[in-house]
Amino acid sequence: MTDATDATGRDSLGRTGSPRLAAARLAIGLAQGAALWWLYRSVREPEAMVWPATVPELFGPLAMILVMVPVLMLAGVGRMRWPVLLGWAVGATVFLALLGWHGVAGQGAGEYGPGRYPPFLPWPMPLFAATALFIGHHLVLPADMERRWIAAFPTYFDTAWKAGVQLALSIGFTGAFWLLLFLGAALFKVIGLEFLGDLISKDWFSIPVTTVIFATAVHLTDVRDGLIRGVRSVVLMLLSWLLLLMTVLAAGFLAALPFTGLDGLWETGSATALVLSAAAALIILINTAYQDGRADNLPPAILRVTVRVAAVLLTPLIVIAFWGLALRIGQHGLTPDRIIAFACAAIGAAYAAGYGFAALSPFWRKGAGWMQPLERTNVWTAVLEIAVILALFSPIADPARLSVADQMARLERGAVKPDAFDYRFLRFQSGKAGEAALARLVRSSDPVIARSARNVMAVESRWDDVDVGSPNRTPQYEVAPAGAALPPGFAVPVPPTDERAGCNAPGTCVASVRDMNGDGSPEVLVANNWSIQLWTRDAGGAWSRAGQWTHGQCSRPGETRADMRDILRKGELRPVAPLWPELEIGGVRSGPIEPYKDCRRVIASAPR
Q1: Phi, psi of 524 (to 5 degrees)
Q2: What are the start-end ranges of the E strands in 478-580?
């Protein structure tokens, strides 16, 4: 132990209550707030974004780094030696930069659709990144405190669970601060003073204040170390007794399966997620009962038995999770969600093997400590979790790339028919890897594959409901007046992505040919129940929608709007000159003036 540190590993900043340590944490919070405010300003106005928001591959990693790394610094300052803390912060920055860059760079434009924010961070990567940093921090901190690569398990347990309680309390303190601030603003507003409300609405104030208050909360909870340990002890005690309930439920579920079968579980469509969630709950609750493994924390006999039973139950739960995944992958192939679920199941298998060994070891190892192998399982599985997260959200085992390769292989070998293939997955759910694969399918020699790929390439938004696999179809129009003919090239087969494809049944659309601008070239009006669309033809003969009209802006209570198809059938419309001219504003034509209607007067004048 060096002179600069005490028995707990705190460095020359002093113990938890020292003014220097408080100043360091407040400085970290203030610096984080200023950096986040600068980052937010660059994206505050989507129509006029500035650097670094204009470079998504930079903005995404910066956002994660500026949110997460200062929190690590807050948790490590005063506990870790400065060289170790700075080295860990650099390592965490590199880790987040790699994950953030890969996550953003791998996204396709189709995943967000037109007019939306550029791609920044794909979900759930930030959540997994934060989890990896939490685990990593509580592997590094105990090792530094004890000056060895692998610390004693009680130190791992103490630092990790204490940090979890501190984090929850700090977030709660920050939320309570803002609730009180909003309450104060409301009180001042009642007496005509709005300065506080105006102040907290300013991002240059709200963002730095939030980070400084969070840093303050971290320091205050660190000062009262005994209080935090007391809260942690109460939380662990309460959760440990919930293990009894969860074990009974899991055992009952497994015991009932031979009589009910697994069909009902598979039919939920989320069997793997449910079973893995149950296994995760058992793992957490087992640790709340075992705690640090010391004799003075030995739980009651009934909980010791429950811990052994729960540890054994993990294995059949993980087997069911793998079984469900295998069935889904065999039927529908790989997707990013299934690859992530497989990774989670693999981590669960590591826990199940270690915990099962710990539970059963007394049967062949005389004098074995109570569940002691669990300690090694927790440490090495924590390292495994970080490695798996790094692989999943980096080029090593990118779920999107692996899924696209598998889906394309299924299509090529005939495991899925071309008209049943999920082309939307390639367009909207698998990033640039999927878009590249879809571009290859457009050039396919199979007409069904090529047509379906072209159709989905034309879809602008993943939320558009278009049957991309269907062939081109001729829209069905009721022509008004009866017996009239539509211009050549208008009523022709169109792909499902064409707006005219919505006229797919008799009576859905009414069409009428009119010369709307008096240039001697006919236009086509197409009416549905709420609007009339104007279709024009360009010099090449291609038709496109120029705009639409709707009838009225306000409705009286109980009033039914007129069906625009009836209006077009009866010819109750005519072009009229605008009452007011259009304006050219800044060199751009503004279009016709929008009529103002006070809907309150319309509704108020309705008979009662």
Answers
A1: -120, 130
A2: 478-479, 510-514, 523-527, 531-537, 543-550
Question: How far is Cα 342 from Cα 332, in angstroms, rounded to an integer?
Answer: 15
CB of 391 closer than 8 Å to CB of 397 = yes
Nearest alpha carbon to residue 312 among 275, 360, 278:
360
Task: Please choose, from the candidates 377, 381, 380, 371, the residue with its C-alpha nearest in 3D space to the C-alpha of residue 293.
Answer: 371
Give the orientation angle of helix 399-412 with respect to helix 336-360, to 10 degrees.
Answer: 110
Instruction: Identify the pLDDT of residue 572.
Output: 84
For 563-576, what is each residue's pLDDT tens digit? 888 888 888 888 88
Instruction: Give the residue-averaged pLDDT of 199-216.
Output: 96
Q: Is the pLDDT of residue 1 over 60?
A: no
Asked whether the beta carbons of 33 and 77 are under 8 A apart, the reply is no
**Confidence check: pLDDT of 150 > 90:** yes
Decide the pairing of beta strands 523-527 and 543-550: unpaired
Report CA-CA distances (Å) from 51 to 203, 528, 607: 18, 45, 57
Average pLDDT over residues 164-176: 95
* Cα distances (Å, whole numbers) of residue 488 to 492, 502, 522, 548: 8, 20, 11, 22
Q: Which residue has the higher pLDDT, 252 or 502?
A: 252
H helices of 147-224, in order, are 153-190, 195-200, 203-223
To the nearest whole percent, how much of the chain has pLDDT over 70? 88
Amino acid letter, 339:
I
Token representation of residue 303: 């909980």
Distance between CA atoms of residues 587 and 48, nearest Å: 20
Q: How many residues does the chain have?
A: 608
Specify the DSSP class assigned to residue 268. T
Q: Do 524 and 487 touch, CB atoms closer than 8 A?
A: yes
- Residue listed under structure tokens 């003014």: 19
- What residues contact residue 585 under an 8 Å CB cut-off, 6+ apart? none
Q: Across all residues in the chain, what is the average pLDDT? A: 86
Cα 525 to Cα 312, 547, 556, 565, 575: the distances in Å are: 71, 10, 28, 10, 12
The beta strands (E) that lie in 251-309 are given as none
The pLDDT of residue 229 is 83
Cα(504)–Cα(134) distance, rounded to whole angstroms? 55
Residue with tokens 């080295």: 87
Q: Domain limits of the chain?
A: 19-160+211-218, 229-392, 399-457, 478-578
Contact 73, 244 (CB under 8 A): no
Distance of CA 58 to the CA centre of its chain: 19
Distances (CA, A) of 576 to 44, 78, 175, 517, 595: 42, 77, 58, 10, 14
DSSP of 106-129: T--GGGT-TTSPPP---TTHHHHH
pLDDT in tens, 78-102: 899 999 999 999 999 999 999 999 9
User: Measured between alpha carbons, how far apart are the two ends of the chain, in Å?
Assistant: 86
Contact predicate 376/354, CB 8 Å: yes
> What is the rounded distance in angstroms from the CA atom of residue 377 to the CA atom of residue 383?
10
